Amino acid sequence: MKSPHQRESAELLLLCWVFANKHVPLDEDRRYLERLAARAHHRRDLETLLAAARRQDLGDVQLAAEVLTKEQSGPIIAFLRQAVVVATSDGALSLRNHHILRFLADLCGVSPDTLRAIYREVTGRALAAPEDLSHRSHWQPAEPEAEDTAEADTGSTQAHAGEPRASWRDRVRRLAENQWREHKQQQQWRRQQAQQAREREQQREAAAQAERERRAQAHAKRQAEAEAQQREQARQQAEAQAQRQREETAQRQRREQQQRQNQERQQQRHDQRQRQEQERQQQRERQQRRHEQEQRQRAGLQTPSYPIRRALIELELDANASPREIKLAYRRLAQRHHPDRFHGQSEWRITLASQRFQRIKNAYDLLMQHA
C-alpha cells in the first residue's frame, strides 16, 4: 500500500485473493495475473501479494477494499470482469468465490443485475446462487458410500443377502462412474468456457491496444502534418523576407548609383565652372599686364634699378610682373625655402635656408614698395 500506484496494488491484491480461493488454481491464472501485474508495474511484487492472499488475512483485504473505495470515482466494470475471469477459469466457481464476487461487486458499486450480466458475458452461463451447506441435498452424494461401507462391514454375517447386496453395489458403482464421467465432461466444458473467456478478454485487450496504437499513429500523423505545415510556413516566410531584402538592396543600390551619378554631374559642372573661371582670371591678368606694360611704355618709365632687378631675379619674375604675381611668387618661394622644412638637418643647411628665406622676404618687401 506504500506504492505510488495504490489503486493498482489494491486491485491486484483482491485478484490474488480470488485466485487463492479457487478449487484448482491454474497456470493460466498465474500467467494472467503476471500480465496484469506487469501492466500495473508490480511484476516483482506479485509473489508478495499472492503470499498475503494465501494467508487469508482479512486485514489486508480490508485495507485494499478501503483504498479501492477511496480511489474510485464510479463503477469499476473492468476490474470486476477480471475477477470473474480469474474465478471461473477452471469452470467451477468455488463457494468462497461466490461470496467474494458479490462482495467485490458491492465494493465496485455494481448492482447484482450488472454482476450477473458480466458473469454471463465472461462465462456464457448464468450466475447461480451459492449452495446451502445446511441443506441435505448438498451431502446426498456421500450417503451411498456410507451405506456401502456399513454393508461391507456386515457382509460376512449376512450371507443369505449377498447377491442382492452385490447388485446394489454394481448399481452404486455404475452411478458413481456415470457421475464421474459427467463431472469430467462438465469440468472439461468449464475449462473450455474459461479458456474462451480468457480469449475474449485477450481479444478485448488486443482490440483496446490496437485502438490505442491507431490513435497514437493518428496523433503522430497529425503532429507530423502540423510540423510540416509549420516548416512550409517558415520556409515561405523566409523566402518572402529574402525577396524583400533583395528588393530593398536593389532599391538602395539604384539610389546610391543615382546619387553617385548626380554627384559626378555636379562635380563635372563645378570643375567646368572652375576651369572657366580660371581661364577668365588668366585672361584678365594677361590683359592687366598688357595694360600696365602699355602704361609704362607710354609714361616712358626707365629701366628698373639694380636692387629691383635683383629682387625680381630673387622672386624669379620678369620686369612686367604685377603685384598679384609678386605675391604668388613670394608665397611659393617662401613655402619652398622656409627654415622649418629643414628641421633635423645640419646647422649649415638650416643656416643657408634661413639666409635664402630672408633674401626672398627682402625682395618681396622691396618690390611691393615700388609696385
Automatic annotation (TrEMBL):
Residues 131-304 are annotated as: Disordered. Residues 186-196 have a biased composition (Low complexity). CDD domains: DnaJ. It comes from the Bacteria. Pfam families: DnaJ. Keywords: Chaperone. Residues 162-185, 197-234, 244-297 have a biased composition (Basic and acidic residues). Coiled coil: none annotated. PROSITE patterns: DNAJ_2. Residues 310-371 form the J domain. PANTHER family: CO-CHAPERONE PROTEIN DJLA. This is J domain-containing protein. It comes from Salinicola endophyticus.
